[in-house]
């Protein structure tokens, strides 16, 4: 009998050795259940071929061709990734929604002797739980925003808060983006659905009796849009603004964006995207500084000319200022301890 998913927290307690996503690689890449492994029974090309035959030619023919492809791919999985599984192995399989792909593979595994089950409603049933968590339900605990201009080490402070036992949502890490034109982390951002899956898992693990610390963000982080539950909670949250000397901010950015500084072509291309905001003459000066390796004046100019004015124009709730003399680790640890004492009931005290 197919397994019905009741809640996101229940996923961790399911009595299965492995969760297998049998959808095509592109479906899996867009999003999947936490920890699921992709063993596709139809490749992207095969899925497209079967779907075209189903719609344009004959449904029976499509099912027959699809069954042959599923059997062939199932054999490859049995002789490859699953070759060493013992008799007691118990997998949970899912596909998109109808259960045809997962049911076909599960039937083969059951005939071998494994206790294989499928998820009722497939990935779509899981996705409904994610949507209910982030779109239909208020965030379960109050939010404390860590605000401040570019280069004030808000993300590093979140790390110290987490290390001290406070609840933290690091949205930029989940979104793979630092929230600026220079902000991409890695090769690409996750899909919107993958971001929401990661966020929903963290939200459902929050203790409602304690606040969660979140870096102040706009409605979008790169290409990712914050879902309503979080956006609404952040809009009405208490906020702390970090005030940090310019020299410390510049030094922090030079360290934080070392990967970009080491890639002159990428940096030049990103600077070119600022022409529409500041004109060719101004951006030409910044490009010249970058080419000459004058990164400190470049960063200071970007902060004072581009980022701080934009920060000042943003509509913000009243913030409680927190002045830091520098951005050393000891200073950030003390700041975390202060914030926990003021807001973070239940967090572990720092020595």
Low-confidence stretches: 346-351
State the CATH topology of the largest domain: Rossmann fold
Distance between the termini: 53 Å
Write down the CATH class of the largest domain: Alpha Beta
What's the rounded overall pLDDT mean?
A: 93
CATH architecture of the largest domain: 3-Layer(aba) Sandwich
Describe this structure as you would to a colleague.
- Helices cover 51% and strands 11% of the residues.
- It has helices at 25-30, 44-56, 59-79, 100-112, 122-136, 154-163, 171-175, 192-204, 228-235, 246-256, 258-261, 264-272, 275-292, 295-313, 329-343, and strands at residues 18-21, 37-38, 91-94, 117-118, 143-148, 167-169, 212-215, 220-221, 224-225, 238-243, 320-323.
- The radius of gyration is 25 Å and the shape is globular.
- 32% of the residues are buried.
- It has 15 helices and eleven strands.
- It is an alpha/beta fold and 351 residues long.
- The protein has two domains: 9-132, Oxidized Rhodanese, domain 1 (3-Layer(aba) Sandwich); 140-343, Rossmann fold (3-Layer(aba) Sandwich).
- Mean pLDDT is 93; it is low at 346-351.
- Helix 2 runs antiparallel to helix 3 (59-79), helix 3 packs across helix 4 and helix 5 (122-136) crosses helix 8 (192-204).
- The strands form three sheets. Strands 6-7-5-10-11 form a five-stranded parallel sheet, sandwiched between helices.
List the helices and strands and how they pair.
Elements: E1 18-21, H1 25-30, E2 37-38, H2 44-56, H3 59-79, E3 91-94, H4 100-112, E4 117-118, H5 122-136, E5 143-148, H6 154-163, E6 167-169, H7 171-175, H8 192-204, E7 212-215, E8 220-221, E9 224-225, H9 228-235, E10 238-243, H10 246-256, H11 258-261, H12 264-272, H13 275-292, H14 295-313, E11 320-323, H15 329-343
Parallel strand pairs: 1-2, 1-3, 3-4, 5-7, 5-10, 6-7, 10-11
Antiparallel strand pairs: 8-9
Helix pairs in contact: 2-3, 3-4, 5-8, 6-15, 10-14, 12-13, 13-14
């Amino acid at each position: 009998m197919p397994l019905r998913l009741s809640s996101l927290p229940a996923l961790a307690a399911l009595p299965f050795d492995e969760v297998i996503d049998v959808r095509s690689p592109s479906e899996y890449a867009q999003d999947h259940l936490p920890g699921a492994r992709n063993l596709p029974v139809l490749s992207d090309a095969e899925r497209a071929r079967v779907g075209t035959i189903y719609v344009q030619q004959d449904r029976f023919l499509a099912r027959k061709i699809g069954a042959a492809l599923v059997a062939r791919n199932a054999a490859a999985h049995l002789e490859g990734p699953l070759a060493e599984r013992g008799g007691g192995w118990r997998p949970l399989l899912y596909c998109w929604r109808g259960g045809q792909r997962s049911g076909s593979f599960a039937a083969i595994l059951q005939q071998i002797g494994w206790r294989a089950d499928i998820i009722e409603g497939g990935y779509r049933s899981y996705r409904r739980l994610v949507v209910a968590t982030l779109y239909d339900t208020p965030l379960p605990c109050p939010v404390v925003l860590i605000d401040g201009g570019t280069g004030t080490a808000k993300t590093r402070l979140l790390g110290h808060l987490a290390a001290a036992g406070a609840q933290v949502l690091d949205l930029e890490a989940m979104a793979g983006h630092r929230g600026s034109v220079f902000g991409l982390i890695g090769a690409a951002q996750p899909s919107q659905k993958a971001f929401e899956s990661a966020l929903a898992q963290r939200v459902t693990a929050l203790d409602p009796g304690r606040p969660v610390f979140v870096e102040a963000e706009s409605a979008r982080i790169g290409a990712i849009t914050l879902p309503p539950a979080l956006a609404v909670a952040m809009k009405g949250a208490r906020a702390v603004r970090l005030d940090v000397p310019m020299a410390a901010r510049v030094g922090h950015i030079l360290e934080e964006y070392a990967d970009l500084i080491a890639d002159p072509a990428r940096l030049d291309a990103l600077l070119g995207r600022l022409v529409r905001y500041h004109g060719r003459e101004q951006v030409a000066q910044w490009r010249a500084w970058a080419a000459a390796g004058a990164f400190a004046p470049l960063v200071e100019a970007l902060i004072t000319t581009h980022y701080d004015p934009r920060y000042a124009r943003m509509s913000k709730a009243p913030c409680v200022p927190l002045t830091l003399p520098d951005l050393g680790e000891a200073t950030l640890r003390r700041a975390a301890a202060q914030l926990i004492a003021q807001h973070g009931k239940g967090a572990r005290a720092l020595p």
